[in-house]
Design brief:
About 85% of the residues lie in helices and about 0% in strands. The protein has about 120 residues and is an all-alpha fold. The longest helix has 27 residues.
């Protein structure tokens, strides 16, 4: 892919993960949501995911260590889709799932593109 376009992809993906991670740290509603998911140690899991999103988002936006930064975010997105979005299929149907999972799927695709096509600046 062309360099300038992939630079903007990195900026966009970095922006989404940085803001998402910050929101998880400052909005208390996320604690209740994570507790309701049945995850072990929900507050620790929330903190870990938030810190990973902010730090890896910053690395991706800066085009530094992109493969290493994209990897945990890919796993986070897969987990988010499996834990929070796939159950929607059985309760509300495929169309509702497609609507609710649209951002998660797009971010997963962008992360896979970043992983494959962006050379890392390993400083």
């Amino acid at each position: 892919m062309q360099g300038r376009m992939m630079t903007w992809v990195c900026y966009a993906a970095g922006y989404v993960f940085i803001t998402s991670g910050i929101m998880k740290l400052v909005v208390h509603d996320f604690r209740a949501m994570f507790a309701g998911l049945g995850l072990p140690f929900p507050e620790v899991t929330l903190l870990l995911i938030a810190v990973l999103e902010v730090s890896c988002g910053m690395l991706i936006a800066g085009r530094m260590y992109t493969k290493q930064a994209a990897t945990p975010l890919i796993f986070i997105m897969i987990g988010a889709i499996l834990i929070t979005k796939v159950p929607i299929i059985s309760s509300n149907g495929l169309l509702s799932f497609a609507f609710e999972a649209r951002l998660d799927i797009i971010m997963l695709i962008l992360l896979l593109l970043i992983y494959k096509y962006i050379p890392s600046k390993n400083h």
